[in-house]
């Protein structure tokens, strides 16, 4: 992965390049950025730059033996840890290394949703287990094969269970010689504070609209108008932009699912609610979390339609038609509660809550909120 292949993030690239040129490479760094910002791609490009035998001022050469191996993710001194779905045959990340390489090489802006789709494990919980820490120790106890440093990239360390997190903390406190840890995180509040405090923070922001628009025009041949609309909807996430470009089937499914839930909740039709819960429960945990995020999006757009400039509402045609009818039910008396309930549901789902109970509770809450009296207009 070359720095020039990463969309925008010029200030971060320059900071990383300077740290290598000035030989100020911290042994543990936390790449903290929202989904779709390119944080994982930046970590891989940084690792490749460090290991490159003929690095230039602004990028890896892309042609030396080290770069060629990095381009295939097969460099012997590059190691990955990432969330997996545990089973009797899958205990650690390397059990799914082939699939990991394929997924990243197809799209360096990988999301957890993409990854678990690849694993066909959408109904499983994403986790980095305590066995992974033992494997990290084993790999890093080996001497380097070719490069100056052994580099361990841990993607989504917030998915570590407590045992794994505590073992990682010990490794960070006493790292093996010539070893670099690059932690690529989206939610640092879910990491042990002691781990965060032992890493150098590399803050990665959302991709700027201008950079994202330029990429969509150049890489996907979108018209300037469509590129601008897609960038606004993607909100700084290239991963989301890719989903929008391909007219992600999940969006259409989410809209239908959201409509069913709202209709069943409004007058609370128990039969319709149970049918809906059975359908959603079969979809898999990552799709369920994706649905909750989608519901938040529709709530936001509905509120904007009620109280803001209608031109700010960015929805597809089918969504627009639905939101015009649905938005009167979303107002200042219930929007905060809607957002709170959806965020709480997402929080509990991350912690492996019973999906059917969780969604039944949500339907009850929505029945109450949808029927709250609208504010009296002055």
Instruction: State the domain count.
Output: 3
Order of helices and strands: HEHHEHHHEHEHEHHHHHHHHH
Q: Quickly give the structural class.
A: alpha/beta
Residue stretches low in confidence (pLDDT < 50, at least 5 long) are: none
Mean pLDDT: 89
Between the first and last Cα atoms, what is the distance in angstroms?
Answer: 58 Å
Put simply, the count of helices is 17
Q: How many strands?
A: 5
CATH topology of the largest domain: Rossmann fold
Beta-strand portion reads 5-15%
Strand order of the largest sheet: 2-3-4-1-5
Overall description:
It is a single chain. By secondary structure, this protein is α/β, with parallel strands linked by helices. It folds into three domains: 3-205, P-loop containing nucleotide triphosphate hydrolases (Rossmann fold, 3-Layer(aba) Sandwich), CATH 3.40.50.300; 208-246; 249-370. Helix content is 53%, strand content 7%. The protein is built from 17 helices and five strands. The protein has helices at 10-21, 39-51, 65-70, 97-106, 112-118, 130-140, 162-173, 193-197, 209-220, 224-234, 238-245, 249-266, 270-281, 285-307, 317-326, 335-350, 355-370, and strands at residues 28-32, 78-81, 150-155, 179-185, 200-203. Strands 2-3-4-1-5 form a five-stranded parallel beta sheet, sandwiched between helices. Helix 1 packs parallel to helix 2, helix 9 (209-220) crosses helix 10 and helix 12 crosses helix 17 (355-370). It is globular, with a radius of gyration of 23 Å. The termini are far apart. 38% of the residues are buried.
């Amino acid at each position: 992965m070359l720095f020039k292949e990463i969309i925008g993030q010029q200030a971060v690239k320059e900071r990383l390049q300077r740290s290598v040129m000035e030989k100020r490479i911290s042994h543990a760094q936390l790449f903290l950025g929202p989904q779709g910002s390119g944080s994982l791609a930046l970590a891989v490009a940084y690792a490749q730059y460090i290991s490159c035998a003929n690095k230039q001022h602004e990028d890896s050469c892309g042609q030396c033996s080290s770069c060629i191996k990095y381009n295939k993710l097969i460099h012997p001194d590059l190691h990955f840890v990432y969330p997996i779905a545990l089973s009797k045959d899958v205990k650690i990340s390397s059990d799914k290394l082939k699939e990991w390489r394929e997924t990243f090489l197809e799209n360096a802006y990988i999301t957890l949703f993409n990854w678990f789709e690849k694993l066909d494990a959408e109904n499983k919980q994403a986790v980095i287990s305590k066995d992974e820490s033992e494997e990290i120790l084993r790999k890093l106890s080996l001497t380097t094969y070719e490069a100056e440093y052994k580099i361990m990239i841990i993607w989504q360390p917030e998915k570590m269970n407590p045992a794994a997190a505590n073992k990682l903390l010990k490794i960070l406190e006493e790292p093996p010689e010539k070893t670099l840890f690059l932690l690529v995180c989206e939610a640092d509040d879910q990491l042990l504070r002691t781990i965060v405090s032992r890493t150098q923070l590399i803050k990665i922001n959302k991709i700027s609209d201008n950079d994202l628009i330029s990429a969509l025009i150049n890489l996907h041949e979108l018209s300037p108008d469509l590129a601008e609309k897609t960038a606004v909807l993607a909100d700084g996430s290239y991963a989301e932009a890719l989903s929008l470009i391909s007219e992600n089937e999940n969006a259409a499914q989410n809209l239908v699912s959201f409509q069913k839930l709202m209709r069943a909740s409004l007058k609370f039709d128990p039969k319709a609610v149970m049918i809906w819960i059975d359908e959603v429960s079969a979809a898999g945990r990552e799709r369920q979390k994706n649905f909750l995020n989608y519901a938040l999006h529709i709530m936001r757009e509905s509120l904007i339609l009620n109280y803001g400039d209608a031109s700010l509402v960015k929805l597809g045609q089918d969504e627009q038609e639905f939101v015009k009818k649905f938005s009167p039910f979303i107002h200042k008396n219930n929007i905060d509660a809607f957002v709170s309930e959806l965020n709480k549901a997402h929080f509990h789902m991350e912690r492996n809550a019973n999906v059917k109970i969780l969604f039944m509770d949500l339907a009850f809450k929505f029945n109450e909120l949808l029927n709250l009296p609208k504010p009296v207009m002055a």
